[in-house]
């Protein structure tokens, strides 16, 4: 028994050393904690900084989100601020060097941390968001921040949650010759703001749309999300910028996001009705049209955790009460 215990202790020690080594390697790879932000011109005076199609990691510093900025005659309009104070500071520097102007308005498209934790660099008074986005960030912001501190380590140093100071209760806002139309929707979260720049025809959708990257679902209402995607199809635009993935001149992002959500929901409902547990549900076969989407396997597993309990509640009959959908 003593030998077995000693062997077990040595095994645990070896495992700990391996995890510690992996942690140190990740920290070393991000040793200077510098975001290499490279703006790409997508329209006149309009720029995209495209995030990596990955999950949060210490290697990428949380740089997984699309951020956009538009240089107007009155200053720069910024759409989302990234995952940390460091990111926000790097973003402000890139905006100054690219445009020679200061940020006069920030729009937060929704309350998820990769989109809003750079807010403090730009000041609450300049930041506009839907009222439910503001309340969502008030409720969940600190928990989001704590989680990213654990995931990203020193990339998050000095990051503090900053609540937008300007509720979006207006239909549009004009800066110079650019009129930005506010398009309040929901589905990815309970408040998702899409924005249309009427001068350039660029439609900024936040995480209502993903392209070549699997959609995330921690606060999703898929029925509302699909309705929002139908609404986006009716908005005249020349270019669509999703929350994750490349700029899209052909509305692939709307079609792909809608098709992926429809498939995901149908597979999860089928798994519930077949009596599968969550682990089994997460092993669903992925159709060929989705196999090349980034991080699809991981997001399916996360979506099972997000969505399965409610689907079980909805579709599984209680003992003695019959099927909830048919009444039999």
Shape: globular
> What's the CATH H-level homologous superfamily of the domain at 40-251?
Ribonuclease Z/Hydroxyacylglutathione hydrolase-like
Element order: H for helix, E for strand: HEEEEHEHEHEEEEEHEHHH
Kindly report the average pLDDT value: 91
SS class: alpha/beta
CATH topology of the domain at 40-251: Metallo-beta-lactamase, Chain A
Helix content: 25-40%
Low-confidence stretches: 1-12, 14-28
Secondary structure topology:
Blueprint (H helix, E strand, L loop, with lengths): L1 H28 L10 E4 L2 E4 L17 E6 L2 E5 L5 H15 L3 E5 L5 H4 L10 E3 L1 H22 L13 E2 L4 E4 L2 E8 L6 E6 L4 E9 L11 H12 L5 E6 L7 H22 L4 H4 L14 H20 L13
Parallel strand pairs: 4-5, 5-6, 6-7, 11-12
Antiparallel strand pairs: 1-2, 2-3, 3-4, 8-9, 9-10, 10-11
Helix pairs in contact: 5-6, 6-8
Description:
- With 328 residues, this protein is an alpha/beta fold.
- 39% of the residues lie in helices and 19% in strands.
- It has helices spanning 2-29, 85-99, 113-116, 131-152, 222-233, 252-273, 278-281, 296-315; strands spanning 40-43, 46-49, 67-72, 75-79, 103-107, 127-129, 166-167, 172-175, 178-185, 192-197, 202-210, 239-244.
- The strands form two sheets. It has a seven-stranded mixed sheet.
- Helix 5 (222-233) links the parallel strand 11 and strand 12.
- The chain is globular.
- Mean pLDDT is 91; it is low at 1-12 and 14-28.
Structure described in brief:
The chain is an alpha/beta fold and 328 residues long. It contains 8 helices and 12 strands.
Please supply descriptive tags for the structure shown above.
19% strand, alpha/beta, disordered N terminus, five-stranded mixed beta sheet, seven-stranded mixed beta sheet, 328 residues, Metallo-beta-lactamase, Chain A, 8 helices
